[in-house]
Each structure stands twice: as C-alpha cells, then as structure tokens.
Amino acid sequence: MTHRRGEAVALAGLLAAAGVTHLVRPGFYDPIVPRVLPGPARFWTYASGVAELAVAAAVAHPATRRRGGLAAAALFTAVLPANAQMAWDWRRRRPAKRAIAYGRVPMQAPLIWWALRVARS
Q1: How far apart are the C-alpha atoms of 27 and 48, rounded to whole Å?
Q2: 2 falls in which pLDDT band (50, 70, 90)?
Q3: Contact, 60 vs 19, CB < 8 A?
Q4: Calpha distance 89→107 (Å, rounded)
Q5: Is 87 in contact with 105 (CB distance < 8 Å)?
Q6: I want to staple 33 with a disulfide (CB 3.0 to 4.6 A). Which of 20, 44, 72, 86 is the partner?
C-alpha cells in the first residue's frame, strides 16, 4: 500500500466512523446543529451521517477518489458551523469538555488540508 493510498484509506475510515456515529448516536449531534438551519436537528444529523458515508465510499474507491477528496473538503467546511455551535454551547462546561469543544474548531483546517491532499493523489 502506498503512502498516499494509506492516507485515502485512513480518511475514508475516519469519515465512515463519523457517519456511523451520526446514525447510531444522533442524540450527541442533535444539540450542535446550528439553530438557523430549517427543520428538525435530527434531519441534519442523519443527513450529515449519510453524507459522510457517501464521501467515505468515494474516497475509498480510486476511480472516485479525487471527487471524494474534494467532497470531503467541502463537508469538513460545511460542518464548521456545528463545531462553532458546540464550542459556544459548551463554553461553561468543565475544562475537559470545553477543550474537546474548542479543539474541534481548529481541527477543521488540517482535515480540509488532508482531504485536498487525498484529492490530489
């Protein structure tokens, strides 16, 4: 397995794991859905889980890896408001929880970079 292929497989695995958790533990994600989005939060939680699974499949397959990597970068950009919402909502929680919430926001940049790197491979 080449280094670049390994990066793609790892990214696909991360996306697939995130997609599964959105579908099996939606109660964790519902509260961080930005309130400005129309409709119920559960819809957006499930939709993001399905999107993550679809993007994971695209990244995993060499024929669709470029488009999958670009889609992953777009997805990581799109979920940034949810991570910002979580950071805001958790600002008064205990330090460990705040660190998790605050850490999710800057993590989007390396995830976007990773997805773009996979798209170029």
Answers
A1: 13
A2: low
A3: no
A4: 18
A5: yes
A6: 44
CA-to-CA distance for 83 and 31, rounded, in angstroms?
11
- At which residue do the structure tokens 């850490």 appear? 103
* CA–CA dist 51, 47 (Å, integer): 6
Q: Which of 28, 44, 45, 32 is nearest to 86 (CA)?
A: 32
| Model confidence, pTM | 0.87
What is the DSSP code (8-state) at residue 21?
H
The token pair at 18 is 């995130």
How much is the CA Rg of the chain, to the nearest whole Å? 15
Instruction: List the domain boundaries for the chain.
Output: 3-116
Q: What is the pLDDT of residues 36-93, one digit of tens each?
A: 899 999 999 999 999 999 999 999 999 999 999 999 999 999 988 888 888 998 899 9
What gap in Å lies between CA 33 and CA 52, rounded to an integer?
15
